[in-house]
Design brief:
3-stranded antiparallel β-sheet
């Protein structure tokens, strides 16, 4: 059975989030990305494969090197989906803060 990768499962992993942050500023090769982690290169390659399958990264061949670039369009889709939840939690935390401020005054 071939299961489709889920974007949210992909970004749930802290190493994959760190990879996305690295690649957000500039395109990088797998070796350059792997040099930022204390894990084996095949492990980083697996993370890159998952991020590519989810279309959060895309590969670009330049001679013998393969560069990974962030897919800003896909990242925007994820951000657009999460935004209403962020607004809801901001509102809830603001209300909790107001309750705590009233509690402190008493």
């Amino acid at each position: 059975m071939n299961l489709r990768r889920d974007v949210f499962q992909a970004i749930a992993d802290p190493t994959r989030r760190a990879i996305l942050l690295l690649v957000a500023s500039q395109a990088m090769t797998a070796g350059a990305i792997a040099s930022n982690f204390d894990t084996a290169r095949p492990t980083v390659s697996r993370h890159l494969q998952i991020l590519t399958e989810c279309r959060l990264l895309h590969q670009e061949q330049s001679g013998r090197e393969v560069y990974y670039r962030i897919n800003a369009k896909k990242m925007k889709e994820v951000a657009d989906f999460i935004e209403p939840f962020r607004a809801m939690w901001d509102d809830r935390f603001n209300r909790l803060e107001a309750v705590m401020q009233n509690y402190k005054k008493k």
